Amino acid sequence: MTNQAKAIRIEAHGGPEVLKLATVEVPAPAKGEVTIRQKAVGLNFIDIYFRTGLYPHPLPHGLGFEAAGDVVAVGEGVTHLKVGDRVAYGQSPLGAYADLRNVPADRVVKLPDSVSYDEAAAAMLKGLTVQYLFRQCYRLQEGETILFHAAAGGVGLFACQWARALGVKLIGTASSDEKCALAKEHGAWEVINYSTENVAERVKELTNGAKLPVVYDGVGKDTWMTSLDCLRPRGLMVSFGNASGPVEGVDLALLNNKGSLYVTRPKLGDYVPTQETMQAAADDLFSLIIDGRIKVAIGQRFPLSEAAQAQEALAARKTTGATIFTLD
Length: 328
Fold this sequence. Notes:
The chain is α/β, with parallel strands linked by helices. The chain contains nine helices and 16 strands.
């Protein structure tokens, strides 16, 4: 038995105009899958990378990795979920921009009643990103000082709050005084307006010349050298995104010259490879949302039919906090 769904599809790489709202067939869930009636879908920068072809994927395809909703059918072999469960995911195959879809059950976590669909759709990919960055990639300790670029963005506002919850001093960067103020409100210790200040010099001032044990950089090309200049000897550069374009032509001798630096280019999937690790990371995130130490800042809501406008706003850095698509 098949059902019909409304979904965003692309048949060619390009600008926002390639996003088309289509009617697609959704078959019964296969072995190891569940069918989810989606209530809210998250928008992330990685969606734009797949739309443009920066991250290649065979065409045609859908977009999106993150959503929340209700299980309406369960495939063979799935034991941790049942029809009627409230669920969320942040690491699915492409295709979350839809009102109904099948998802591998090992990517799906149970959603506590006290976390809303909107919160979960806005939090899963961004929140789990911060979870693996702060608790696994480099396990932050209370009292440490770190740098986090784009601190007023979707991931950044989670990072500001999570750092505060850990007793970590987060130095954020942002492009305007308004965004600096927003990051401060969400828990950043200090914020540097990179449009008017020299980030590396300001970091040296704030740390009395000691610089930092770790820098988290989701911006990429534009901030690569600045990030390296903020690290102390044997510090770790965590380059986890490409908002300004990919880092290319990495000079290993530069890492030596700047103090035997370490660099990693991680991705979430390698830190939550199983259903158990995914649920554990999500539970860590949900506990902070439930007790109020992380408030999910949803700056924009769009209907799915306006996916192009939503991606344009994100790419132009006209958004704050998270952006979600709302579904009936």
